[in-house]
UniProtKB/TrEMBL annotation:
Keyword presence, Hydrolase: yes
Protein name: NUDIX domain-containing protein
Family statement drawn from the similarity comment of this UniProt entry: Belongs to the Nudix hydrolase family.
Organism expressing this protein natively: Peptostreptococcus equinus
InterPro entries: NUDIX_hydrolase-like_dom_sf, NUDIX_hydrolase_CS, NUDIX_hydrolase_dom
Domain of life according to the entry: Bacteria
Keywords: Hydrolase
Entry-linked Gene3D superfamilies: Nucleoside Triphosphate Pyrophosphohydrolase
Length: 148
């Protein structure tokens, strides 16, 4: 069996429709339980491109079939966590209202709900990295360094 999580990097997908974004409420993970997170997120496997990781995670977590043309990298966060340096790569995907994407949670034991939020009215329980990434998205900031 292939060992995962060998890299110190992760990808996140902001699913956007008009001025709303889809978020998931985490549970039973021991990490940010009860907090909202971007709908798709996960570690990059060894020798995997960031785009391929995003496509794989979208399929694994939400049964969402996407292509490279569907997503756009909008910001990168460079941070220090657990005495290691991490890079978080954030992508955005515009969802058309009239298209049926069949978004569903494939990790029912980890995700309590999926919910749409206005970009300007985000939930209070939102992790620091996601707050920064969403702010970067709204302001067009490409790179942030935090946690030093």
């Amino acid at each position: 069996m292939k060992e995962r999580f060998k890299t110190k990097s992760a990808v996140f997908l902001l699913l956007k429709m008009n001025d709303k974004i889809l978020m998931q409420k985490r549970m039973n993970t021991g990490f940010y339980d009860g907090y909202y997170d971007l709908t798709v997120s996960g570690h990059i496997e060894e020798y995997e491109s960031i785009t391929d990781a995003m496509i794989r995670e979208a399929k694994e977590e939400c049964n969402l079939d996407i292509t490279k043309e569907d997503i756009e990298l909008f910001t990168v966060i460079h941070t220090s966590m657990y005495n290691d340096l991490y890079y978080f790569f954030y992508f955005v995907m515009e969802i058309e209202e009239n298209k049926d994407y069949h978004i569903r949670v494939n990790e029912e034991n980890k995700i309590e709900e999926l919910k749409w939020f206005d970009l300007d009215k985000l939930p209070e329980l939102l992790g620091e990295h996601n707050k920064i990434a969403i702010n970067n998205y709204k302001k067009g900031i490409r790179l942030s360094e935090i946690g030093w």
